[in-house]
Specification:
Layout (H helix, E strand, L loop, with lengths): L1 H15 L3 E4 L16 H6 L7 E5 L3 E5 L4 H8 L5 E4 L8 H8 L5 E3 L7 H13 L3 E3 L4 H5 L12 E2 L2 H4 L3 H14 L4 E4 L2 H8 L1 E2 L11 E5 L4 E5 L6 H9 L2 E4 L3 H7 L6 E4 L6 H5 L6 E4 L3 H7 L3 H28 L7 H13 L4 E4 L4 E4 L23 E6 L1 E3 L2 E2 L2 E6 L5 H18 L2 E3 L4 H13 L10 E3 L8 E6 L18 E4 L2 E4 L3 E4 L2 E11 L2 E8 L17 H18 L5 H10 L4
Parallel strand pairs: 1-5, 3-4, 5-6, 8-13, 11-12, 13-14
Antiparallel strand pairs: 1-2, 2-3, 7-9, 8-10, 10-11, 15-18, 16-17, 17-20, 18-19, 21-28, 22-23, 24-27, 25-26, 27-28
Helix pairs in contact: 14-15, 16-17
């Protein structure tokens, strides 16, 4: 099927005089996850991961993706004729470098300029032009051959009440208008869906598990234009938005209206996320102020009501995960449990919790060697039975009106090997070190990442993903600009100073291809500690409340300090979760959180 699609694409490229076609993952808004309408890269390659770029010429087809997806991509691309390019590995060219090496003078590159960020596209176009290579950015070549392409999503938009949002849209608009004025701009163009949803206190369902509304926004000092499908908005919500000065306009009119901006105006936008075609539509004579969207940091620093709501959400989620752990540990080997049935059982437990909205991402429930694929999600085609030995990794999360959760626990299903036990404990030691960090204000995740990796780095081992990411409030489970990683990546915005009330994941791991995978993940909120002559100290509070599996731990490997940290955490888990369990579950949890 993939080979037939690539053949059809090449025929279409030939008709259009296109020598190479670049197919990114993004939608028109630089979203990490995209709706079915936008899954052109998946359609043409068969690779279903959330990150990657495909390139097709008349004599090659390639897919670039990062280390999270190497194993998955290798399996899904097998026999397709699509070559895997492992990003950031030695000797592997970037997509841009490959195109510059491959395309010759007089040839043409085609891509949909709505699906590529302006900054990266402008650089590529400039460099190719210097080589005499033309770029065509207003073509959707995959869309031309995708005969049964799903329609653009138009799910109902809904309002997030103040008791959940913690701050009115009017107050948020006033705050952001102030930031726009400080930047000296007349207009602010906002294209990130999560930022628009946060600013206007609206949510939707236009991306699977990401409750956003397909939209653009243009803000001036006295007007806000929201470009979206008007059918998604009820009369009541439209009227409510109008009271805050927000008027609805057709989704695609954003291009016409940006093209009509008067010369001499100053427009604030982030060229890293605003799409190339949109930025290209802005007339010459309009000054662009290119900087990070002021909504990004404002959204990441949660307000007090959001933080308190998140504590509630994580107790609810902890109850579901703890009940799941009890069910799993007491039933494995006694009844048939598969990856899919385990995921379904956990989802059912979450649905029992009040104010549950949806999963915050597709559950990653992976047994044995499947867990070595960081973002593997079970399907009927790949589903395997969980046996009473080895490790099961469950990376799951939920959206509640009180916020979003993301938790990973790795469980011993029975006897495990000494290597599995050693690495389980080493990863947990790194997790505890980061959770209990104390640091001066001004640090970023890059300053602290070593804490989580030290037990592995001491042995010359590592894991090839970031240690943590920001988390949205009933929005995307991956949120910039905060995160933990050991080096800056040019294509990411996750190395911001750690501010009070930022929520970040803490998720070190370890993976053995063909063997097993381990990851321990909690959400942590940044808090102020003491302030003295050296400055303001900061620390973290665990939001996630669920046991780690003591059956997989080697206490002898842990220091007295590390054991004390784990014991304190488990005592808190029991205190907060036990009241919501049955008597039998409480007895089990008391043992599962015993002191070591």
């Amino acid at each position: 099927m993939v080979k037939d699609r690539i053949k059809a694409l090449r025929a279409r490229m030939k008709e259009q005089g296109i020598d190479a076609c670049m197919i990114p993952t993004d939608d028109y808004h630089a979203s990490e996850y995209v709706g079915t309408f936008f899954k052109c890269r998946t359609y043409i390659t068969g690779f279903t991961g959330s990150a990657g770029t495909a390139v097709v010429t008349q004599d090659m087809a390639g897919l670039w993706t990062d280390a999270r997806y190497f194993i998955q991509a290798e399996r899904q691309l097998s026999g397709s004729g699509v070559d895997l390019y492992r990003m950031h590995e030695p000797g592997v060219p970037t997509v841009e470098a490959f195109l510059k090496q491959t395309l010759k003078k007089g040839q043409r590159l085609g891509f949909d300029g709505r699906c590529v960020g302006a900054k990266s596209a402008e650089k590529l176009v400039k460099e190719l032009k210097a080589q005499g290579v033309e770029t065509v950015c207003d073509v959707d070549l995959v869309g031309d051959i995708w005969t049964d392409r799903p329609a653009l999503s138009c799910e109902p938009a809904w309002e997030l009440d103040m008791k959940w949002a913690g701050k009115s849209r009017e107050d948020k608009i006033s705050e952001i208008r102030g930031k726009v004025a400080e930047a000296g701009a007349d207009l602010f163009l906002l294209t990130k869906l999560e930022d628009i949803a946060w600013l206007l206190n609206i949510r939707g369902n236009d991306i699977h598990t990401v409750p956003v509304v397909l939209s653009y926004l243009m803000m001036s000092k006295d007007e806000i234009r929201l470009y979206a499908n008007e059918k998604a908005f009820s009369a009541e919500l439209t009227e409510t938005l109008a009271k805050a000065g927000v008027t609805l306009h057709p989704y695609n009119d954003i291009y016409k209206d940006t093209a009509a901006i008067e010369a001499g105006k100053k427009v604030l936008l982030d060229r890293g996320t605003a799409n190339y075609l949109l930025v290209q539509s802005i007339p010459e004579g309009v000054e662009l102020i290119d900087r990070q969207n002021p909504t990004l940091l404002a959204k990441a620093v949660k307000n007090p009501i959001e933080v308190e709501n998140e504590r509630i959400a994580h107790i609810k989620d902890g109850v579901a995960v703890t009940k799941f752990m009890y069910w799993l540990k007491t039933n494995v080997g006694k009844m048939k449990i598969t990856e899919c049935s385990a995921a379904e059982y956990l989802n059912a437990l979450r649905k029992e919790q009040e104010h549950f909205v949806d999963n915050s991402f597709d559950p990653i429930v992976s047994y044995g060697e499947h867990a070595a694929m960081n973002h593997y999600s079970p399907s009927p085609e790949t589903d395997v039975e969980v046996e009473p030995h080895g490790l099961l990794l469950a990376d799951t999360g939920g959206h509640y009106l009180e916020g979003s959760t993301d938790i990973t626990r790795t469980f011993a299903m029975g006897p495990i090997t000494e290597d599995e036990r050693w690495h389980y404990t080493a990863v947990l030691r790194g997790h505890l070190a980061l959770a209990n960090a104390k640091f001066l204000y001004g640090c970023t995740g890059i300053n602290l990442d070593y804490l989580a990796r030290e037990p592995l780095w001491e042995r010359g081992e590592d894991f090839k993903h970031g240690t943590g990411h920001g988390v949205g409030y009933l929005l995307s489970v991956h949120e910039a600009p905060n995160g933990f990683r050991w080096k800056r990546l040019p294509d990411r915005q996750d190395d911001a100073v750690l501010e009070e009330s930022m929520i970040t994941s803490n998720e070190p791991g370890y993976y053995v291809e063909g063997g097993y995978g381990i990851r321990h993940e909690n959400m942590i909120v940044c808090k102020k500690a003491e302030k003295n002559e050296y400055g303001q100290y900061m620390c973290f509070e665990n939001l996630t409340m669920a046991p780690f599996d003591l059956d997989a731990i080697d206490p002898e490997q842990m220091s007295e300090k590390e054991r004390a940290q784990l014991n304190r955490y488990h005592a808190e888990v029991y205190e907060k979760i036990a009241p919501h369990l049955t008597e039998e579950e409480q007895v089990w949890l008391k043992h599962a959180t015993r002191e070591i």
